Amino acid sequence: MFGTGRILGLAVALACGAATSQAPEFAQQYRQRLNGALHELRLVVSAFDADATRNNLTRERAIVVYEEAGSDFLRDRATSVRVAIGRLGDLERQSAAFDEASPVLRPLIVARSPDGPLLQGALDDYEPAVPLTLHGFIWTGIGVLFGFSVIWLLGLLFRRKKHYPAHNLRV
DSSP for 62-122? Predict the structure, then answer.
């Protein structure tokens, strides 16, 4: 009834569908970590800004004071503050992209420019979920189509050509 090739094709397509069905859930878990990181970075930067303001300094001038200090520790702190402020900006842009994107496109937001520590944390703690949303079903369908396409292309590459016996045709 079904040949080995068709069974293999169906298995690959279903495996691809199962894998891609997890993209929306992974994006959701990444987004939750993103929002937590944003909250914490905003607290850190706000505290730095408040300290600078109390000392009649702008944020930039306070960083320069650290950089010009004779202490390696304070110069390192200046670098840390600059990194934190830059990362906060990057995460805010990514959060805005999540807010603007439809749920079906959110996995692409993660794929486009993930934050390394957030991505690693999401991967470490990821728990698969059954896709019961429309965007989950769309990603499942994409995976199934991808799997069928891969098997079809491999079938084209490895298909045996049929050899027909030469006939002596007399005209």
Answer: HHHHHHHSS-HHHHHHHHHHHHHHHHHHHHHHHHHHHHHS-GGGHHHHHHHS--HHHHHHH
Cα diameter, the chain: 106
Look at the pTM and tell me if it is higher than 0.85. no
Is 34:115 a contact under the CB 8 Å cutoff?
Answer: yes
For 127-131, the CB contacts below 8 A with 24+ separation are 127/29, 128/22, 128/25, 129/22, 129/25, 131/21, 131/22, 131/24, 131/25
Q: Is 141 helix (H, G, I), strand (E, B) or coil?
A: helix
| 47-104 pLDDT, tens digit each | 999 999 999 999 999 999 999 998 999 999 999 999 999 999 999 999 999 999 999 9
* Amino acid residing at 132: L
Which residues 6+ apart lie within 8 Å of 18 measured at CB?
Answer: 140, 143
Residue at 170: amino acid letter? R
